[in-house]
Amino acid sequence: MPWSTSELAALAGTTVNAIRHYHRVGLLDQPERRSNGYKSYGATHLLRLLQIRRLREIGVPLDRIEEVASSERPQEPLRAIDAELDIEIKRLKQMRADIGAILDGGFSAWLPVEFKDVADRLSSAEKAALLLSTRLYDDRALADMRQMLLDEAGRSDEAAQEFDALPPDAGEDVRGRLAQRFAPELALVFSRYPWLTDPSGHMSVPRGAAQAALAETMSTLYNPAQRDVMARAIELARAEGGANAQA
């Protein structure tokens, strides 16, 4: 007894859309049509559908089904698929671990889980800059960044709070004072992590693209007064570091 598309789908435990997709990708032969124009499926179509479903259940991708199904020795393609599944399982386990850490810590889901210990005291701008850093820098650089933030843990810095609240039209005296305040600590950071002054060896993307992305992002996250303070502090810190090196 021939079956319609919907009847075949019910028998095989799949959907009409799935059957149509298998036709499109060449996994299931087109059936003959009845005199009324409707498709007429037979046992060979049902068995082929069950074969496809079984292979999909064990993780065989659609584009590998024909290879596995038609091979007299499917061990080789299955070993390759098994290795791919192992990688995917590890990825899913890591995803679950990250979600668990986020749920336990209550920090922003889009932040790297490695920074969970310091995330709660970062400003929104710092979090966004950190997110960008995960794309621009390698793992070693990110580990150093995490350590920098841990070293600052527990500090109650009025200067940092003032910087966060700094208006775009802040006066020269305020900008200069804040730059002077940040410069010594920044010089110490530069001495501990020299790559910060020349991060070329720790970038995951071409340096020009990274610099452009940083400049555009800093322009978005910080107002002109804040950017001026940062530029001055960096210049002062570098000068202080050079003076210390000469001494």
Number of helices: 11
| General form | elongated
How much beta, percentage-wise? Answer: under 5%
- Helicity range: 55-70%
Mean pLDDT score = 89
Question: Can you list the strand order of the major beta sheet?
Answer: 1-2
Termini distance? Answer: 96 Å
> How many beta-strand runs?
2
Query: Which class do the helix and strand fractions yield?
Result: mainly alpha
Order of helices and strands: HHEEHHHHHHHHH
For the biggest sheet, the summary is: 2 strands, antiparallel
Radius of gyration: 30 Å
Residue stretches low in confidence (pLDDT < 50, at least 5 long) are none
Can you describe what's shown?
This protein is an all-alpha fold. 66% of the residues lie in helices and 2% in strands. The model has no long low-confidence stretch (mean pLDDT 89).
